[in-house]
Amino acid sequence: MKYTEDHEWLRVEGDVVVVGITDHASEQLGDVVFVELPEPGTSVSKGDEIVVIESVKAASDITAPLDGEIVEVNSDVADNPGMVNEDPTGKAWFFKMKLSDMSALDGLMDEAAYNALIG
After folding, report:
1. Helix (H) or strand (E) holding 85
2. What SS3 state is found at 69?
3. pTM greater than 0.85 (yes/no)
4. Within 13 Å, how many C-alpha atoms sit on residue 101's CB side?
């Protein structure tokens, strides 16, 4: 998996990338009560706000980690936002995207670098 400084993880599955938030981000948010996902087919640029998460503590936006197109969303997370707290790096992924350039993944952190970031 690859990681962003915004506490997102990315896992490559064939020609798409699955995106979610890390355990650390889930813990910082507290109990998640609402998730709004983008529409499949949406073209995004790195940094675009594309997911809204509300928890008992705060509301947060998840940004596009890289340029590409949203090809699938995880409606289970929208229906059951608590999944984000239960399994943030597994069943609670947010969306799958087809990247404009797969080599852009090379600029992201590996697990060791991410763990160093969060201390």
Report:
1. helix 83-86
2. strand
3. yes
4. 8
- Say yes or no to pLDDT of 28 above 90: yes
Calculate the alpha carbon distances from 60 to 1, 16, 56, 104 in Å.
23, 25, 11, 25
- What spatial distance separates the first Cα and last Cα of the chain, rounded to whole Å? 18
Rounded-to-integer distance, Cα 23 and Cα 40, Å: 25
CA distance 37 to 110: 26
| CA 79-80-86 angle, 5° bins | 155
CA angle 30, 108, 118 (to 5 degrees): 40
The continuous run of DSSP H or E covering 116 comes out as: helix 111-118
Dump pLDDT digits (tens) for 30-87.
999 999 999 999 999 999 999 999 999 889 999 999 999 999 999 999 999 999 999 9
Average pLDDT over residues 107-111: 96
- Which tokens go with 55? 């928890």
